[in-house]
Amino acid sequence: MDINFARKASQKLGRLCLVGFLAIAGGAPAIAQKTDSLSDQQVENLVRRSYQYVAMFNVIQKEIVTKGLNKSFANAELLDHTMKGIARPNNDTLYQMVTLDLRNEPVVVEYPSIDSTFVALETSGYAHYCDMPLLSAKGDFKKPVKVLFYTDRTKGYRGEKIKGVDRIIKADGDFYYAFLRAMPHQSDPKRMARVAKALQDVKVLPLSQFRGKPARSSHAPKFPAHGKTDADVFASNLLEVMQFVFNHTTFDPNNEMDQAVLAAYAPLGVAPGQTFDPSRVAKLDGTRFRRIAEEVAEKALASMTDKAVQKRITPKMFMPKGETDLETLVVVSVTGPIGVPAYVARYLPSSAKGGQPMNAKNDYVLKMSKAQLPPAEAFWSLTLYDLKNGFFIPNDQKKYSVGENAGYKLNKDGGIEIHVSEKKPEGVPEENWLPISRADVDLDPMFRIYEPDAKKMEAWTVPQFEMLKASSAN
Q1: What is the mean pLDDT of residues 361-378?
Q2: Domain positions in the chain
Q3: pTM (2 d.p.)
């Protein structure tokens, strides 16, 4: 939808929903307390334009609650099924994460050299536009690097050079997520230990501390409540969340999508620079917004198995502002926020032959010949999730993926069979088995291909699972 259409829709929404839109002291609008006349199409437009912000607000706020601000956190071990902070997390890379508070002063992050074949730094604010400032494929991480982050609202700093800082990055959000991942090299325990230690050695310093002075005093704002799921936010406190997001995000006056979301919310009493006042914003039907948000999410998940959709959105997944679109942002926000773009890694869902949903009531096998293996220049993996939430399938073996880091065994011809079953089939290597519990749970297997061979990817087809006959199931 273009910006002119969005503005006209917002004006129509205003006429339908507002008894008054009157200026008061401080610039806050006086809003009618009823939006019953919103059509499902108008609600869906709001949901779709909000999803990237709601999804990243949930991700960032969960990190702030559990780990705090300006504090480095690194995992020395791969994630397991207790990870609930983000949908479809990796189980084949180690993470280092920090949520930066860039309101009061810039923050410097010191990254050491990292002895790994694959290392990538990804960043994003609430807007969910993703950047990749540092990549091992570009020669980064061979030596230490100091990176300074700031925004248009950072107090007392406007992008000037700082002695000792190697890179300066202007972020689009005051609360900014910097997310480092590295291949751990599990087959070499000593190397894995070096990689893990390097991630734990990342330092986060407000600029004053970087200069050897005391950090400026700061206090965390009163954050709106985040939801257990994105649908929870749509149902309970959408306008409060979006007001907070608007106040801590940089919007480009020349960016069509930026202006469209602002235009959609203006008639509801939400605009950048305002203090949230529940008495002066529209009253939303939370049950209705939840229903439509869940419908949007369901459609987005279903679209990931559509080859035409995959082809259309893959080049635009997890890209910076101006290099993606609304359709893509909705899909990636639903399926799993904070991924890497296609030139760094490809995330491709697999499915069962015949198009039938995969379910833990059944067992499955995926067969690949040597020629059918994913064309990865770094490495590949196949990870199993539950479809609804995007979490690992719990199992006593803590085995969630097959690949170089989790382990796999190729057959004598260089191919592989990967089994999804309640019990390990006889003769199948443990490395090639993905355990499940017998239950009515839809399954979502996903390939990750790191540093894909672009030319070979054009001809590669994602292999599909075969459902085993009932008599063959364990």
Answers
A1: 96
A2: 70-210, 344-472
A3: 0.79
